[in-house]
Design a protein that fits this description.
Shape: elongated
Largest sheet: none
Helix content: over 70%
Structural class: mainly alpha
Oligomer: single chain
Number of helices: 4
Distance between the termini: 42 Å
């Protein structure tokens, strides 16, 4: 398996920039499907890094994979919050009733 080291600062900044571009496009297009793509990509990376962590037992790769898993979790959290925000924008723009107002609790506490 190929190791995609997302814990490398340049790779992480590039992934963050690409994610922000997707979020901007999703916000402008008022489409949550565009914002869902980075979330799916980071979930695939999380599964891939988890499988590599379980199968590769060399001592030099384990710390790198631990950092990659941590970065994956942080990016999934950020993209999930962004996805909920863009989904709320889409539901207001298309006048669809949202199943639940998922971010209302977040904005009340901020």
């Amino acid at each position: 398996m190929v190791l995609i080291n997302i814990a490398n600062p340049w790779v992480l900044l590039t992934a963050l920039f690409i994610t922000l571009c997707f979020m901007y496009i999703g916000k402008e297009a008022k489409s949550a499907a565009v914002a869902l793509l980075p979330l799916i990509a980071f979930l695939v990376l999380l599964v891939m890094h988890g499988l590599q962590y379980l199968t590769m037992s060399t001592s030099e790769i384990v710390p790198i994979l631990s950092k990659c898993l941590f970065a994956d979790f942080i990016m999934i959290f950020l993209t999930y919050i962004s996805y909920l925000w863009i989904d709320d924008i889409e539901s207001k723009a298309k006048k669809k009733k949202s199943i639940d107002n998922s971010l209302e609790w977040f904005w009340k506490n901020v």
